Amino acid sequence: MSSREHDHDRLHTSVLVAPAKERRRLRKQRRQAAAKLQAEQRATEKHAAKAKAEAERAERRATQYLPAAGEPGPAALRTPGRFRLPRHQDTSATLAGAYPFVAEGGLGSDGVFVGQDLYSGGSFVYDPWVLYARGIITAPNVVLAGIVGSGKSSLAKSLYTRSLPFGRRVYVPGDPKGEHTAVAEAVGGRAIVLGHGLNTRLNPLDEGHRPGGLSDEQWATTVASRRRDLIGALAETVLARGLTPLEHTAIDLALTQTVRENTVPILPMVVDHILTPNNDTDGRLAEDGRIVGHALRRLVAGDLQGLFDGPSTVRFDPSLPMISLDLSRVTENSTLISVLMTCSSAWMESALLDPAGGQRWVIYDEAWRLMSHPALLKRMDAHWRLARHYGIANMLIFHKLSDLDNVGDAGSAMRSLANSLLANAETRIVYRQESDQLGPTAKALGLTGTEQKLLPSLGVGQGLWRIKDRAFITQHQLHPAELDLFDTSSRLTQGVK
Predict the structure, then answer these.
(1) pLDDT tens-digit map of 418-436
(2) Are the beta carbons of 185 and 175 closer than 8 angstroms?
(3) What is the per-residue DSSP string for 226-248?
(4) Which phi and psi (to 5°) does residue 96 adopt?
(5) Whole-model pTM?
(6) Would strands 462-467 and 427-430 be described as parallel, antiparallel, or unpaired?
(7) Are the C-beta atoms of residues 476 and 115 closer than 8 Å to each other?
(8) How far is residue 184's CA from residue 371's CA, in Å, rounded to a whole number?
(9) Angle, to 10 degrees, between the axis of helix 374-385 and the axis of helix 216-239?
(10) Angstrom distances, CA of residue 117 to CA of 52, 126, 282, 431
(11) CA distance linking residue 296 with residue 236, whole number of Å
């Protein structure tokens, strides 16, 4: 190779190598420039953060807080400074217990104190009239269910006795076990004890309490209608069937004749006019009323005599704080209980349906007994439907909600009426239930799975309150005086140390 060719090759190689070195140098310069920019940016951010921290410290030092003794004069307990709290860091499990919106807000503080809300730890207060006025519920009726010994009777007594200072009155139209007698006497009311061997008489044809605002003609029409309906209901109860049109006519004519002839009509007079009617030349009227006349005769001369066969020896005084009808002497005769309840319901009805009568509790204890009789069930249904208009809060007390399934046959009118009572009660209180009752109870009340599982584990005085779509678990609290007065187990524990 000549020298010229060798110089040409070397020059070509240097030209190829020079651009590669230049590119590496430029890349290094760019990296250094980027690193320098990042360092300058970090320094700027650090300086800004330091300046911000110093400004915050200066602001805190300049903030005016309340002096130890408080501000004097009109500015007492006020400061222009902003209230600041230090930050707190914790686990989500711990913070969930302190989060203020986990627990139900409650029903407010207006009403009757019941006890403690076991979820929130606060006081639980309930009053159906207050909740109705606030629009939380649209029906003031209450259903209370719980097994024996769960504390449901004490809760019912607390609710109505603690309502008395608020101007409410209490009516117990039938107390099969006599549990409310001592309570009625303790609060200044009266318990009317009915039963064989007593001098107490209850005339089902009494006019009863006259509401204000009725003219003499209106009152006469009201009394006549009530008497006619009552005698018909008594006859249906004893006969255990409905009345025929002919029997209705026989009762109506006999009642009209009795009222025309007597200032104080009583049931034996009506029975006599049914069996031996006036102006019955062909004997057809006596024949039409023969069966119903002999059925009613049981109330005045048969096995049910002694309670309805004379003028009333007791008077219903609607001004008393509490009135209870004690049926503990007649628990062995279901027909007699039904008749007594029918009469007492009609007896109290005139006071219950007085718009000027104020707000009243009506307590149906041992409701499963009462709802088995069609006449009583119809009256109860009427009272429940009119509760809002007349200021009444009805309370049905059961052992278990499945008792409603024992009322009438499936699909019958009685079963429909019983279910309507539950539907018209937007407050449902469930105390401890047996395991076999969880399914029917959950279905009837629409309970969640969690609520259903809680029922068997509830302690004495603990209940699940379903108020419309809201749920509460509460612990009922009793005063020592209430504990002694409401005790229903004294006979079992008497003499036990």
Answers:
(1) 777 777 788 888 888 877 7
(2) no
(3) HHHHHHHHHHHHHHTSPPPHHHH
(4) -65, -35
(5) 0.70
(6) antiparallel
(7) yes
(8) 24
(9) 140
(10) 47, 11, 72, 14
(11) 9
